[in-house]
Design a protein that fits this description.
The protein is an alpha/beta fold. It is about 30% helix and about 25% strand. α3 crosses α4.
Length: about 220
């Protein structure tokens, strides 16, 4: 199979990318949707420009798709980019969002491509724990949930901190894998590419939520 990987640079797209590699598929390109506005119900916004460095470490072409983030323009712009590639389909890290999965599947059908969502409905805690145990270095780049304070911003997950995160998720009733927007991530290294990304960032914290500006 020849596939594109829809990548935000975060943990779920990294896991989907690795899944494709483990099957011996050819990853033709990493495709990143970059939102020009302030909000998107479909795509991650923070740190997506760092996918270019991930692609360089893997020696895979990177395609950046700029869009306003408004519906349906966001997916229409993505479809135009995918239509130019010689692929059988694309792989994404959709985990629980029916909205995201259904829109990607409709787009795939219109392009006569296959949409693979290998993480779909995995257990969030097991998914996160297993990624850390398999050597993925996952940094939290955005925080927006009760129970997560400033110390988590810029934190790179360990086996112990995944356990702490899971306890907080149960106590404060948020999704441990961050699927509800509780936090955003950036993968610095892992088995899906060689080398490690070292980032410089400015932290922004308002007492309730925060984000890193990656330079």
């Amino acid at each position: 199979m020849r596939v594109a990987v829809l990548s935000s640079g975060g943990k779920d797209s990294a896991a989907a990318w690795w899944w494709a590699q483990c099957r011996g598929w050819t990853v033709v390109a990493l495709v990143t949707v970059r939102i020009e506005g302030d909000d998107s119900p479909m795509f991650q916004i923070p740190s997506t420009h760092v996918v270019e460095q991930q692609a360089e470490l893997a020696e895979i072409p990177w395609i950046s798709v700029s869009t306003s983030g408004e519906t349906p323009q966001d997916v229409d712009d993505l479809a135009k980019a995918l239509a130019s590639l010689d692929v059988d389909g694309f792989v994404s890290g959709a985990l629980r969002s029916d909205y995201q999965k259904s829109r990607l599947e409709r787009m795939a059908e219109s392009l006569n491509l296959i949409s693979w969502t290998p993480l779909w409905h995995q257990n969030g805690y097991s998914h996160l724990r297993d990624m850390v145990q398999h050597g993925f270095k996952i940094m939290l780049t955005g925080i927006s949930a009760e129970g997560l304070d400033e110390k988590w911003l810029g934190h790179t997950l360990t086996v112990d901190s995944v356990e702490e995160l899971n306890r907080l998720a149960q106590r404060y009733r948020f999704n441990v894998e961050g699927e509800g927007g509780e936090y955003e991530t950036l993968v610095l290294s892992g088995p899906h590419h060689d080398g490690e990304i070292v980032v410089e960032a400015t932290s922004h914290w308002d007492g309730v939520r925060g984000m890193l500006t990656i330079h």
